[in-house]
Amino acid sequence: MQHPLSKIHRMFELVEPIATVTFSEVPNEAFLALGMRNYWDGYFAGRAAPLGMAPAEVVHAVFYNFADGEVARHIPWVWGKTTPQEAIAVRERGSAAALRQLIGQLAESPALVRVADLATRAAVSAPTEGRALYAGLRPLRTRQTRRTAHHRADHDRRRSRLTRFLIHKS
User: Fold this and answer.
1) C-alpha angle 74/79/82, rounded to 5°?
2) Pair (97, 114) in one structural domain
3) 79, 22, 21, 88: which is closest to 49 by C-alpha?
4) What is the pLDDT of residue 51?
5) Number of structural domains, the chain?
6) Domain termination residue (choose one: 61, 77, 104)
7) Of 78, 135, 98, residue with least CA distance to 24
8) Using an 8 Å Cβ cutoff, are 133 and 49 in contact?
9) 3 and 43 together in one domain
């Protein structure tokens, strides 16, 4: 039987690249362009956004690992520069751009549609109890992501059929 720590380590290896993308320079630069003063303003805006315009005390309760007062240095100041909806969009666009930089040509791969669908299914399958940020983020893009993925897959299938037809007829 495999030791639980090896499973935990494997899960870390699979999930850590997501954090590498989300907390990379690309999303950080996007938040700085919005008027954030530093990395931590963008961090708190992007991470706390699923809670809406929650006060610092609520954000601190969810982000319990920060020192007293750290959250209050950024919340509610960041909400004077952006809205939670815009912060989510900026973080998403920045993360997508960072991922495209990392995976290069794979971003155009038809197989990525399947991977995105599987990742979305996995991402929305956990219970929300005790997971305030997850509960806030889960419904935001899953319908649109699936619709976009299925639209791209249908488009790719039609293009493939058309290509085969044209080759066959020539």
Assistant:
1) 120
2) no
3) 88
4) 96
5) 2
6) 104
7) 98
8) no
9) yes
Report the Cα 137 to chain-centroid distance in Å: 9
Three-state SS at 127: coil
The whole-number pLDDT of residue 9 equals 85
> In whole angstroms, what separates CA 49 from the centre of its chain?
12
Beta strands in 50-134 (DSSP E): none
Q: What is the pLDDT of residue 169?
A: 43
Cα–Cα nearest to 88, from 132, 38, 44, 37: 44
pLDDT value at position 145? 52
Residues 115 and 56 in one domain: no
Domain of residue 149 covers 109-170
pLDDT in the model for residue 11: 79
Ranges of the chain with pLDDT below 50: 143, 146-147, 158-159, 162-170
Is there a single domain that holds both residue 62 and residue 84? yes
3-class SS shares of the chain: helix, strand, coil, % to 5: 75, 0, 25
* Cβ partners under 8 Å of residue 53, min gap 6: 76, 79, 83, 84
Sign of the four-CA dihedral 140, 58, 70, 11: negative
Residue corresponding to tokens 């290896």: 13
Residues 146 and 165 in one domain: yes
17 in Cβ contact with 98 (< 8 Å)? no
